[in-house]
């Protein structure tokens, strides 16, 4: 192997984020770092691309002459190229027509800080799992010059917000060029002129993610700032971001010749893409506005992530009108008609809701856990007024996490030896994962203790750097840091966004009782906190600084730690090292809460409110729950009851199990629960399972539905629109003439249907059951005798007839019903 070949291979490897879930690649980077003097090495392992760029030419010759390095190099490069070879393992889907996954943020690695929290981490894990599973996906997002923000904690416990600039050339992203070799530019029209968009390409195994960037000299100063900060700036900058991503993203894919078969909207921020798609469909198929809207909705998947109002983007109607006007003109739709698709008319002060727009312009919709699906149906059921909340056409796909990216190397080694070296190929196989019972208790406990020591060491290093930044002497720092955390104490982790509903400080509601739990000499407990409130969220910032003050109090000092600048690196140490992951949101406001899903594979347990994913994951064998599964009118009562239940769970269930040891010093029952949690939860909450579910339940049906709607010049789309128009005209003419219950239980009704075609009628009862509808005979024009299935009148007094076309994805899509009461 020649030095030049080593350099070319490493250039290829460090530009493919596949390395972010390969422990072999991390080992290789550690070997590379030895070629850099310690004084210049810094924290380059956090940024492999910068590590590569820092190597001197002679280093490649040294590496090429090292037999051990050559062996590792060959293994890693072979694995990377094999994992990156384009293959589709979902029959019916292909890379020729991938699913276009639009997201405002992608959390792939700390070296690319363009994510804020769970939404972005979910998007990153989605891309990684799509690569693993051979699900054709292309990502579209934004490359932010200043990212979300860097968080620092000052000496008084106050949060500082910093926005260091990111040098894109030092990231794995590469600029996208056109056929002539010049950097690609995508124009997007804004009220103050045309903004040009530069494009960067990320490789994530098989998946490619294209990131949009406006910060370069060809743009005006105001346009350059559009992509400076994730979720940053005033309302006008926010709508500019969403216009640039939605409109610019669709134009980008056209410029690259990529023809998506499915469009996946990861939250409503990206819903403006429908405007550009409307223009394209109208131009290509010559459809009416209504038929074109039906065509684009038919292959669109929309994932809503939050039941919290602040998480559902809204804009002033006048502001939206100003920004969408040129795109409406190009698409041939009036601004009023487009605005009507997104305005929430249920409010006294109507706002343009991006979530409403996304729900109206998609036919495949989902929440991110089963409970969140129920909550989302209840929240948005007003869009389908004829049906009960639970009948709204919103499904759910429970989030998962990319286990291979989050598992500790030591745990991976245990799995390789005792479960199987190909365990990553069986991430969704529940029977296979029962093999974790074969891991010897002694080995699992040893590894778990090693991971906790690594966490403690990491916490001390982070705190030491913080104190050094604040000017503390080495002696003072050593005194503080050496007393931080005890590797032998039960360690609880709490890390997520500091949004108010997540209740970060709940554990301290009764400070005296919290202190007794933490300071027990026989059963000590310690808690590590981390997380970021949004810079413009004063309530979240207040809670963050409250926890900072609590950590400084004498009774909590050394037992409670708040880490600054929560990112994927901090998260890895936490989910690998803690014994228990604490989750205490105000139910039912946690849509999913994926952070706790990373813990079981690393030998940790969850202690959580029954909210989000834990409603599906909890059993007495996998962890603990606390609090009541009911809705509270008074938040203060909910907090009081929940914290009392939390203290009881820790004192009566968690601590006795952890501190009861056998003669060998092993907590046998605790270890048994660790294995039960790992075996049951890893396959159930893997993002590989999640992505396969999206592919089979959403992508493939959406792809087929889109083809049906566009076939023969959009014939089905036209037919659906004509049918919907006939239903709208006929409904006011429909009237019923009573009912008669026959002896066999069939309900017979005379109905005048106006222009409604009786073959499109379906019937549901108040209990949610569907009953067959049969047209017995036509009495006169439009007047029919209708028979409603056997037993309908006995099981349900209130029956609802509703029009539903075979071309609809969901039978309730039209949202209208005709109520009738059985005698």
Q: Structural class of the secondary elements?
A: alpha/beta
Shape descriptor reads globular
CATH domain class of the largest domain: Alpha Beta
Number of domains: 4
Give the total of beta strands: 28
Tally of helical segments? 28
N- and C-termini, Cα separation: 87 Å
User: Low-confidence parts, pLDDT < 50 over ≥5 residues?
Assistant: none
CATH names the topology of the largest domain as: Rossmann fold
Report the CATH architecture of the largest domain. Answer: 3-Layer(aba) Sandwich
Strand content: 15-25%
Q: Main sheet?
A: 10 strands, mixed
Quaternary structure classification: single chain
Tell me briefly what this model is:
The chain is 42% helix and 17% strand.
Detailed description of the structure:
By secondary structure, the chain is of the alpha/beta class. The chain folds into 4 domains: 3-83, no CATH class; 99-396, Glycogen Phosphorylase B (Rossmann fold, 3-Layer(aba) Sandwich); 403-421 and 430-677, Glycogen Phosphorylase B (Rossmann fold, 3-Layer(aba) Sandwich); 734-821, Sandwich (Immunoglobulin-like). Helix content is 42%, strand content 17%. Strands 1, 2, 5, 6, 7, 8, 9, 10, 13 and 14 form a 10-stranded mixed sheet that branches. Helix 24 (614-617) links the parallel strand 19 (605-609) and strand 20 (623-626). Helix 11 (289-297) runs antiparallel to helix 27. The longest helix has 44 residues, at 687-730. The N and C termini lie far apart (87 Å). The mean pLDDT is 94.
Helices and strands, with pairings:
Blueprint: H1 3-14, H2 23-33, H3 38-41, H4 48-54, H5 57-64, H6 67-83, E1 99-102, H7 118-133, E2 137-142, E3 150-153, E4 159-162, E5 174-175, E6 185-190, E7 193-204, E8 207-213, H8 221-224, H9 235-255, E9 262-266, H10 273-285, H11 289-297, E10 300-303, E11 314-315, H12 317-331, H13 335-340, E12 352-353, H14 354-360, E13 364-367, H15 370-380, E14 395-396, H16 403-406, H17 409-418, H18 430-433, H19 441-469, H20 474-481, E15 490-495, H21 511-518, E16 525-530, H22 538-552, E17 560-563, H23 568-577, E18 580-583, E19 605-609, H24 614-617, E20 623-626, H25 635-659, H26 668-684, H27 687-730, E21 735-741, E22 747-752, E23 761-765, E24 770-771, E25 773-780, E26 783-788, H28 792-795, E27 798-803, E28 818-821
Helix pairs in contact: 1-5, 2-6, 7-27, 9-10, 9-12, 10-11, 10-12, 11-27, 19-20, 19-23
